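re: ur question from earlier - yeah i can do the single chain one, its not a big deal. heres the input i used so u can compare w yours
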Amino acid sequence: MVAEQNGAEMNLYGLDLESRQMVIDMVAQLRKKLLTRETILELDQKELFPEEIIREMLGPEIGLQLLFIPEAYGGMGGGARDCCEVTREMARICLGVGTAFFAIHLGADPLIVGGTEAQKERWLSAIVEGQSLVAYAVTEPGAGSNLAALATKAEPVQDDAGEVTGYVINGTKQFISTGGYADFVTVLAKTPEGPAFFVVEKGTEGFDQGKGEEKHGIRASNTSPLTFRDVFVPKENLIGGIPGQGMKQANKVFGYTRVMVAAMALGAADAALDIAIQYAKERIQFGAPLSEKQGYTHKLVVPHAVHLEAATAFMEEIAVLLDAGGKDLQVEGSIAKLFASESANRAADDAIQALGGYGYISEFEVEKIKRDVKITCIYEGTSEIQQNIISTFRWKKTRKTKGEFYHAMGQEMQALENTGVAVGGHLLGLSANALNQLINVAHENRLTRNQHVMFQLADLMTHVEIGVSFARKADTLQKTGDRRAEKIMAMSRIFAAEVARLAAAAIPTVLQGTDTLDNHKVDDLFASMAFDELARGSKGVINDMDKVADILFERQS
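and the output i got, formated as tokens:
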């Protein structure tokens, strides 16, 4: 399809808007028929994996899995934007069930990005026909998110002529979503040529799908260990047919799936905020609704609503790039996941606080959402793994481009400010400039050896890039006369002020935290980074929060 991005036409992979809405409407029907509030609470309370419901969702009458399968193999050919929207709606109902659905998507991805035509025809067709639950088996007990520490091995088996006929797999996988129920798994194992993905089918001799773990949250999903003891798979089960391609395939998947995890986190947080907002309209305290009290609105709701909208703007931008055929978007995927998951976790936590004692009671749902959403900070790579990825690769990008990467963002934001569009462009420009200088100072003084410094940089990198996307979206909505423009512009200014405060906090930590630079040098850098102006960047922010609260709580301004 063809769409516009920043005024330019782009050929984008995916569904037309009408088809996407049809799928979203179908998810809404699931809430009424299969996934009612009572059912969701029961699944959580009893820690039940709803296998029959999931299989019905895959059946011919619903066929929700068709969304992410390419049209050539019987699917709908949905793109990243479509999958983000639908995944978010599923997670809004229940993140546990959403995780079970996402596991099928994730398990199919190695086949989609790296499978041979014969493999796609065989296994993707099985998914399309609703015959297969699928799991993605990568994580290991001793490795966690570190794929370089992969221990599961796949030893080639040769015939008398020396031709490889198959592989024998030995090892253990841990924390595998839907692992206990999957009809087949895509498992990463180490071959002599390097890591590779294999398809292992349920019932294969030596393949043990373990008992589900008892979990803090997402109790409606299954999370099981998988054990492989001399499991023989024919060479036709080596995804792509060439050993040693597994890391390349995994990295292609991560750039995409981490954006999907961001969507899952946002869906759960949407549900929590919806509950908190509705509660505030109805709950009277000291003669007035909670929705009129800044101690509620400005502390427990508005900051989170701003973060969710900011995360959405970035996720939408990256999804467009993915649908346009963008490659090497691993860092962007990490930024989307880190920011959305951490923001959603805090939003759900404050939703409990917002409901007071009721927030702690299961029937009000927010405590379940909080238990559920924490996993988004962990699976598909922990937040700390994302910080490592972001800081390392953006540091290298900054050095490689001689500072142009963040300088260009700063210039763009300042130019936006100069047009008179009030979206916080000036503060974002100053923050991008300060970040650029911090990266160079850290490099030149070998401060990058300190992980705490790198994490400080990662957080600022994340916020600057999210803020730039948010400002772009606000500007576009304003120019097109979109009814959301007033809210998003005010939110963009609030977020820009937050980015400035984060920059003002990071500057002294990075420059002084290791006591490496002399005081005169530090003073010069404080001035060149506009530290004082960044620290004073909150002008008008309370007024903007009032404006956002008026819109969110439908108050008379």
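The first helix runs from residue 17 to 33. not sure if urs matches, ping me
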